[in-house]
Design goal:
four-stranded mixed β-sheet, 348 residues
């Protein structure tokens, strides 16, 4: 089911948040440091045999790079032998790591994330909570890397977290602080706020959530309420993985946007209620799409108010249905039933 494929205080006293008896062992490797060693070796000796360099510095993580670079697909499309596929892998890594700009980036990453920095501890608690609610789950291996930036800046190319079949990769080059000057220009400022090392666990939890919560049914035309409730389930799931994280962080709001949403909760509901069953893509984009604020309201408004309202609906539903487990909630696709049984209607 898993498609792997603390920061600020907030009120949470759910008994399910107790993880004192849960243990997880993470297979965690700083692959970015191995890449740094390879790049440094080449910078000192440009006559180094790059294939031998791969074997010496990166060979222990060949399986990770094989999956990360999707060499299986390359091998299938180009009908390569195992030996030629191996050469493609090593050639790609050599091409990347012999670049001077790549060495500079790896140096920057190493300064921001010293090799002895404890990155595992901030990941453990959300994974313990995941294990508590899904005890049969198989955790992947965790790896860090740095591979540069796509020039276009499309958010789909931002590989700060990369879930692949047997690994979960962290692109540390996207956690260098919101003011790092070399991120792609088109990445919006409201996304850069989360490009800090303190948000690695949050970024991981978001990816986990996307994989765990059931997709919208393919045989149904999505309407606004179905998108709202699914996003609300994801927010509720995130809240259970990160109970000490502020609501504003989970929703990716500024403090003032969070305050606005809480003050105008009833207004948000009234704005949306007549549109719940609309299937117009423009309406869904307006209330669920990524943007700095809700354009139909004001520049001070919070964005994605459909997600905010959906989260409130799901919280109300779960409060009225304590017998529903988190695992059961993630599988639910009868969004209209959740809406009805939540009986959510803020006053104001």
């Amino acid at each position: 089911m898993l498609a792997l494929s603390f920061i600020f205080f907030s009120c949470s006293s759910n008994a399910d948040d107790d993880i004192s008896g849960i243990e997880v062992k993470l297979d965690f490797v700083r692959v970015d440091s191995l890449m740094w060693a390879y790049a440094n070796a080449y910078a000192e000796d440009s006559n180094m045999n790059l294939y031998e360099g791969f074997d010496k510095y990166l060979g222990s993580e060949e399986e990770f790079f094989y999956e990360f670079l999707n060499i299986d697909q390359v091998k299938r499309i180009r009908r390569l032998s195992d030996e030629l596929a191996d050469s493609v892998l090593k050639a790609q890594m050599a091409s990347l790591l012999k670049e001077e700009a790549m060495l500079r980036l790896l140096d920057t990453v190493r300064k921001e994330f010293p090799y002895d920095m404890d990155l595992v501890s901030q990941l453990e608690d959300p994974l313990k909570r995941l294990n508590k609610h899904f005890p049969e789950i198989q955790l992947p291996k965790f790896r860090t890397f740095a591979n540069g930036y796509m020039p276009g800046g499309d958010m789909r190319s931002v590989d700060n977290v990369v879930p692949i079949p047997n690994y979960f990769g962290f692109g540390l080059h996207y956690f260098l602080g919101k003011n790092y000057p070399y991120y792609p220009e088109n990445v919006p400022a409201y996304e850069r706020r989360y490009f800090k090392k303190e948000y690695m666990a949050f970024a991981m939890a978001r990816e986990i959530t996307e994989g765990m919560v059931a997709q919208l049914p393919r045989n149904q035309s999505p309407n606004l309420i179905s998108g709202m409730i699914r996003e609300g389930i994801k927010q509720y799931f995130l809240e259970r993985l990160l109970p000490e994280t502020a609501d504003s962080v989970r929703l990716r709001y500024t403090a003032s946007q969070m305050e606005w949403a809480n003050i105008y909760e009833a207004r948000i509901y009234k704005e949306l209620v007549d549109k719940f069953f609309e299937s117009d893509f423009k309406i869904q984009r307006e209330y669920l799409g990524e943007k700095p604020f809700t354009s139909s309201l004001s520049k001070e408004s919070a964005p994605r108010i459909g997600e905010y309202c959906g989260w409130k609906i799901v919280k109300s539903y779960m409060k009225r249905h304590p017998e529903v487990s988190l695992a059961e909630l993630t599988e639910m696709q009868d969004y209209e039933k959740i809406l009805r049984e939540a009986r959510y209607k803020p006053e104001g």
